[in-house]
Amino acid sequence: MRSMSVPSFIEDESGGYTIWSLTWFMLYVALGGIAVDMSDAFRNQTILQSTADASALAGVIALPDENAAVTEALAYSVNNMATGINGQVLKGAEVTVGTWDFGARSFSPGGATPNAVRTVTRRDSYNENPLATAFLPILGVVGIDATRFNISVEAVAARNVPGCINKNGLVANNKVDVTSNNHFTNICVHGQNVYEDNGHDYAIDIQCNNNIDSGTIFSMPDLDMMNGRPNVNDCNTGLEGALAEGDLWAKDAQAVMGMINALAVQVGGNWVPGPGAPSYVSSVVATNTIPNPPVPGTIYLTSCGNGGSGVALPGGVDIHDIVITGSCQINGNNVQLRNVVLATTAVGNGNDPLAQNSIHFAANAQIGTGDFCNGSSEGQVTLLSAASMHVSAGPDVYGLRMVAGGDIEFTANNSVFAISAQSGNNITATSNGDWSYCQNAVFEGPFEWHYALVR
Questions:
Q1: What are the DSSP calls for 171-221, one per residue?
Q2: 309-343: per-residue pLDDT in tens?
């Protein structure tokens, strides 16, 4: 039998590839494990983030009931990530109701009037559901514990009424059409472009010779939704710097029927001011004839069939501290309004019933007073229509809130100081208008809440 000397044994390379193969095999398994297990970790992180987002939004929609906010958030987390597979990804202790500061972009737990919900979703040891790895445990042979990942993410959802709605803005669910020779100062103009309109598929159309001051915003979901008029930025001073992208829905326009019906309600067979009525009214009178002058403190409840002549506002008198609501169209010439709500559920007939102008001011409408701009909301005029409305204003407009299920149209030569206009379809602003902003003005509601993920 042949013997092998020590030097020969050392120099013998037989089986060397086996050792290298084992070494590379472990490296390949580790690299493959990193690819597979890391991909799975990123996938679970994405699902956790979606779950945190959905849970936070569900919670904030349930406010101001804080217990309901927690319950809804937890329910959405289970719907998104079943506990049988993922464990409990969201615990009640990590659903926090608090206050979101939109200016500082910061969240604080609690607060007198909470407006936000924070959620933290986890696949980690804290929740006793860490994400197990499939291949990386092999690294344990070199002393690395890679048997699980700890993943956690956070989301904050908040509710508010955007300043474009309760301070100064023209917001259309579809289009905003602006003609020429208008002046815009610190106002939001937004078109959401929700309806496809062959040949006219845009969010904002603006003609030439308009002046747009700094602080004004012309926004739409995508700047490609701007009507491609040649040289539109060159022929409108300040327009290019005012353009912005974003979503903003005219949510009040979608809820306008509920707002109208909340102005007067029946209690025990008698009509009384409803939860949506302003504080300056105390009684309800059923009539289709508005007295001259109307009696302050009164809600006039009207009843007409569609297509009827409606009710007429007396002209040339100071109409104040009243509400007119019901199913009649409302018309007026030379009207003077302050502290007034005009509301109607009237719609038209035919294929486009919302095209009916159920509120119509033909000429010389004096709307609101300059007192609105001192921050007291004194003089605010609110127009609510299930269909469309048309305003031909006179000297000035102060504090006009308009909500229409259909269209809103302004004729020429309007001077508007503070407006909140929401249209379920289109807004048209014709020529020679002056659209300005009252620094201290804030419109009184009610308003539909807007919800968004803020972190």
A1: EESS-EEE-SS-EE-S-EEEE---S--TT---SEEE-SS-EE-TT-EEEES
A2: 789 999 889 999 999 999 999 998 888 999 999 99
